[in-house]
Amino acid sequence: MMKNNLDITSIKIGVVGAGSWGTAIANHLGLKGVKVDLWVFEKEVKAQIDHYRENKIFLPDFTLSSNIFPSNDLYPVVSGKDIIIIVVPSHLVREMACKITGLISKDTIIVSASKGIENKTHLTMSGVLKETLPEIPENRLSVLSGPSFAKEVAQKAPTLVTVASKDKNVAEFVQHVFSTEFFRVYTTDDLIGVELGGSVKNVIAIAAGIIDGLDFGLNTRAALITRGLAEMKRLGLKLGASSHTFAGLAGMGDLILTCTGDLSRNYTVGKKIGEGKKLNAILSEMSMVAEGVKTARSIYNLSKKIGVEMPICQETYNILYNDASPENASRRLMSRDLKQEMDG
User: Fold this and answer.
1) What does DSSP say about strands 141-145 and 159-164: parallel, antiparallel, or unpaired?
2) CATH of domain 199-334
3) CB 279 within 8 A of CB 316
4) Residue 2: its pLDDT value, please?
5) Mind telling me the catalytic residues?
6) I need a labelling partner for 218 at 20 to 30 A (CA). Which of 31, 170, 174, 319 fits?
7) Are 135 and 103 in contact (CB under 8 A)?
């Protein structure tokens, strides 16, 4: 893989998923001069991109690159590609991977940009892809994550993310494909750490929204983010991740963004819960997925199964699924046994 003087326009890329993040990624690459085939579920979104060069539902008010070619058919999007980027909601990754297996080459690099943990298996998305894409060697799998709201990427706000792969050459190749003067990409070999950071932060963001909805103040939010990071790290170390990952962009960086930014869907869900609204009513009003809602169940069950203490995630799960009172959940967290701050 030649990284220096890389001719980006010669690379064949398919993006599976045209939500806000998938559209922003496709547009980002299109603006670099690469022709991107974009799989779109909704026929009306395809029509909007074709006729108006805009995704009015998921990324409105941005004129999209003419290098984006939308399709409702998976085959032209994934066949013959050098890179396929998976950007569907995490609970749909298995279904989509099963549809594309057999259509792709063993030499294709798969980039997972979906954040979550599967409910039934407790697998991260790379784990799901390993199960469902047997033709793809593990060293061709990679994960892209970090603090990156789709709208701000589309605005060309300076953004920094991380790509993880077990193969250094794959990570560096993806790094060079994505990097621009306003989109900087770092590399790591810690897939599990990067994926857990991108998953747990969504649950903590719901909790952050709840405390802001309760108007608890900035002291509380800062404490929640800090202790949420401790839970993320505790789970990661148990599953073999590097502690350094959680101090980086895919850990602390993404956590801070998602817990404090009004563009965060997970934070928004939590804030409405804190204000007294019911989860079902909140979700019925949303056109996009708040990943933390489903991931809260996964993390709750996974942490119980492997014996990792995650009290914030547990209380968030109880609020979402057991109709627990946010005020009572806060009291339980504050009245836990006193202990020293740092684990081990």
Assistant:
1) antiparallel
2) 1.10.1040.10
3) no
4) 44
5) 201
6) 319
7) no
